[in-house]
Amino acid sequence: MARSTYSTVLDSLSKAEKGSALYQACIAVGSAYMVNIIRSPKTTVDRAKAYGNALTVIYSAIMDPQQCKTDDTLLAVWLLGLYELLLGVQNGADPVATPGWHSHNQALTELIRLRGSEQFTTRSGRNLFAVIFNNVETRALMSGQECKEALAWILQFHKYCEPSEYPVLRACIFSHHCARICGHIRALVDAGDLEEVLSSSPSILQDVDEVERATHPLSHEEVITDYVVEPPMTPYTPPKHAYPSYVGVHVLQSNFRMRLSYAVFGFLDNACRAPSCTPQQKMVFSRYRRRCIEEIQALSDKVSRISAVLPDIQSCEPVNQGKDATDGLGHNEPQVGESPDAIKARSKEPHERSTRAVEVCLDFQRPVDGKFTLLFNHTNSGMSVVRFRFGDETRAR
């Protein structure tokens, strides 16, 4: 989210007592990370042992009526989700949301419910909510089920927050609406009725076109509606003075907006397969899908430039997601069912030396089969945009 927001996480980690739920969760995450660095029988055994210990202690904390509401327990479960995410990363393949990741994020939602309105009365509580809310909305868009309490939580956040927190609150609102549309798309596609997908396309596309202006449930609050979220294709202009959460807010917004563009890209591919889809509709959808690719590229480029606002980001040559990724959806766009070569959007010319490298690693030509969303994958040399596979929520570990 932002350095000012995550400072609460760092403060809690620095105070974690040995043997506590938060401490054991940190050990588990470190062990999972080491397996990705050094693959050996010992690191694998250490990882499994650390995870088992963490589960035991965290389960005990969750079952305790007092400990289940503490910041440490919430963070411990959040870290277990990070552990599962590290497990889902395999070289040369899409990161996978494991069943454990789904279950831990479901637990996060339950813990936020248990913590009630009291969690919003302190700055640290609101910071933690902003961190966890990202996970809650990500799971919602992947499952196709909107988190019904999200709007009530946003209202509680607004009730207690300070003016300096309005950008973070606005980012939460925007993320929710992006996730809500993505979830609706997911539910339609999962139902498997192509005609229903086609008939729903006008309302879906209208929602997408209006998402930057969506401010419900705070549409009546001028301090929120005056906060402008720029559409993806709006040229980026660096701020003269960046507020503390500037980078995190804009990266979060760009992340969820990219996910929305990718969801629409796949949604329209399904709409084109409907038996009643006319040639004219296919032409319109083709143009819109091309726009989705351009939006993903523009948002990736924007993130690379926004990241340069941080003074400690290392300079490196950026990646220019040029027109080559969209050429495949131009005049010679293949018909549904054909299998053209994969496309990767890569650098042609550098922009500014201050921006980070960003590579869009997506095959835009292949039909979006299966369940995916997008992630920023951070590396030492820069960032890449990769697909995040939903995995199977019901499969046993």
TrEMBL record:
Residues 317-352 are annotated as: Disordered. InterPro entries: DHMBA_Reg_Transcription_Factor (IPR053175), Fun_TF (IPR021858). Residues 341-352 have a biased composition (Basic and acidic residues). This is Uncharacterized protein. It comes from Penicillium daleae. The lineage of its organism: Eukaryota, Fungi, Dikarya, Ascomycota, Pezizomycotina.
